[in-house]
């Protein structure tokens, strides 16, 4: 049975929470590289080394056909000169939204070091070969999840999911190269990337990269 939490108890817990009780790293923006990918990789590896759980988890924001925003958490698959990579079913809600409006934003939050990274840009769906290769290097569980399919559709019952998942796990074990036709790798090509370093005194440091039409980057400090 779900325990009912009343508003006063909820607010008491909420207002008692504190952030960044441990020392935080500095951020000398004068030493920042001329383009954002190098800094992202540096911050990512630093967060992982600092013990941040699942630093590759990120929020993906998209917009549906009626202009309503949507957001969910998924995993980063790569970050290279093409952009930030992730994957999903083309038939999922996010896949349909990206097909209709191929613009998106990503958000990373690493509380152990008080850092955030925000990325905005256009999204391109990769071809079938690259999408299949994306799935091939992942775990049996990832393949099973992809084979279960029907992501974002209405589910009749948890028993229905259990049956479909069990069949998918069995097939993933028997056919490691089993095709998942709707599985698609996506690449977000950035036009803006912001790096946020939290500060206990609330003098947060924010550095934004904006890409010019010629492909070069402008760096700007932002008020916290």
Distance between the termini: 43 Å
What is the count of DSSP helices, taking H or I runs of 4+ residues? 6
Q: What would the principal axes of the Cα set say about the shape?
A: globular
Total number of β-strand segments?
A: 9
Taken as a percent bin, the fraction of beta residues is 25-35%
Main pleated sheet = 9 strands, antiparallel
Helix fraction by DSSP (H/I, runs of at least 4): 25-40%
Task: Decide which structural class fits the backbone.
Answer: alpha+beta
Describe the structure.
With 224 residues, the protein is α+β, with helices and mostly antiparallel strands. The protein has 6 helices and 9 strands, in the order H-H-E-E-E-E-H-E-E-H-H-H-E-E-E. It has helices spanning 7-16, 36-49, 93-100, 128-136, 140-148, 158-174, and strands at residues 57-63, 69-75, 78-80, 83-89, 103-110, 115-125, 183-197, 205-211, 217-222. Strands 1, 2, 3, 4, 5, 6, 7, 8 and 9 form a 9-stranded antiparallel beta sheet that branches. Strand 7 and strand 8 (205-211) form a beta hairpin. Helix 5 (140-148) crosses helix 6. The chain is globular. The mean pLDDT is 95.
């Amino acid at each position: 049975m779900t325990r009912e939490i009343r508003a006063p108890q909820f607010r008491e817990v909420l207002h008692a929470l504190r952030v960044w009780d441990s020392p935080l790293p500095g951020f000398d923006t004068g030493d920042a590289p001329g383009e954002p990918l190098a800094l992202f990789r540096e911050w990512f590896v630093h967060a992982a080394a600092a013990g941040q759980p699942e630093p590759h988890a990120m929020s993906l924001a998209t917009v549906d056909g009626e202009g309503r925003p949507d957001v969910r958490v998924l995993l980063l698959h790569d970050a290279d000169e093409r952009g930030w990579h992730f994957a999903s079913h083309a038939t999922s809600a996010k896949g349909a939204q990206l097909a209709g409006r191929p613009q998106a934003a990503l958000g990373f939050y690493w509380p152990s070091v008080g850092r955030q990274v925000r990325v905005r840009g256009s999204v391109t769906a990769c071809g079938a070969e690259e999408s299949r290769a994306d799935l091939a290097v992942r775990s049996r569980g990832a393949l099973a999840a992809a084979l279960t399919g029907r992501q974002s559709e209405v589910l009749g019952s948890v028993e229905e999911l259990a049956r479909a998942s069990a069949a998918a796990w069995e097939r993933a074990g028997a056919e490691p190269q089993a095709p998942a036709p709707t599985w698609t790798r996506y690449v977000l090509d950035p036009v803006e990337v912001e790096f946020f370093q939290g500060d206990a005194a609330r003098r947060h440091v924010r550095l934004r990269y904006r890409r010019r039409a010629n492909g070069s980057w402008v760096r700007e400090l932002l008020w916290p």
